[in-house]
Amino acid sequence: MADFKIGDTVVLKSGSPIMTVEKVKDASISCIWFDGTKKLDGSFPPDTLEIYNSDDEQLVMVVG
């Protein structure tokens, strides 16, 4: 299990949007994320989360 800190970016191991850790408690990690402009939040058991690594995704830049 990772040691999560406020401000870490995380995802659910099963897949999810990129979330930001807002609060850390022993049995619960509170996260926030956005769906467009709507702010969402939820709490998750630490074992269900992993640190998000942007190197895992291929970034595509469109130049117009």
SSE topology:
Layout: E1 9-12, E2 19-25, E3 28-35, E4 38-44, E5 49-51
Antiparallel strand pairs: 1-2, 1-5, 2-3, 3-4
Protein architecture, described:
By secondary structure, the chain is mainly β. It has one domain. It contains no helices and 5 strands. The protein has strands at residues 9-12, 19-25, 28-35, 38-44, 49-51. The chain has a 5-stranded antiparallel beta sheet with strand order 4-3-2-1-5, with no helix packed on it. The chain starts with 8 loop residues before the first strand and ends in a 13-residue tail after the last strand.
End-to-end Cα distance: 43 Å
As for the number of domains, it is 1
How many helical elements? Answer: 0
Radius of gyration (Å): 13 Å
Give the % helix: under 10%
Unreliable stretches, pLDDT < 50, 5 or more residues?
none
Oligomer: single chain
**Main sheet attributes: strand count, strand direction, barrel closure:** 5 strands, antiparallel
What is the mean pLDDT?
A: 88
**SSE string:** EEEEE
* Count of DSSP strands: 5
The shape is globular
Structural class: mainly beta
- Proportion of residues in β-strands: over 45%
Q: Kindly report the spatial arrangement of strands forming the biggest sheet.
A: 4-3-2-1-5
Summarize the entry for a quick read:
With 64 residues, the protein is mainly beta. The chain contains no helices and 5 strands.
Search tags:
64 residues, mainly beta, five-stranded antiparallel beta sheet, 5 strands, 0% helix, 45% strand
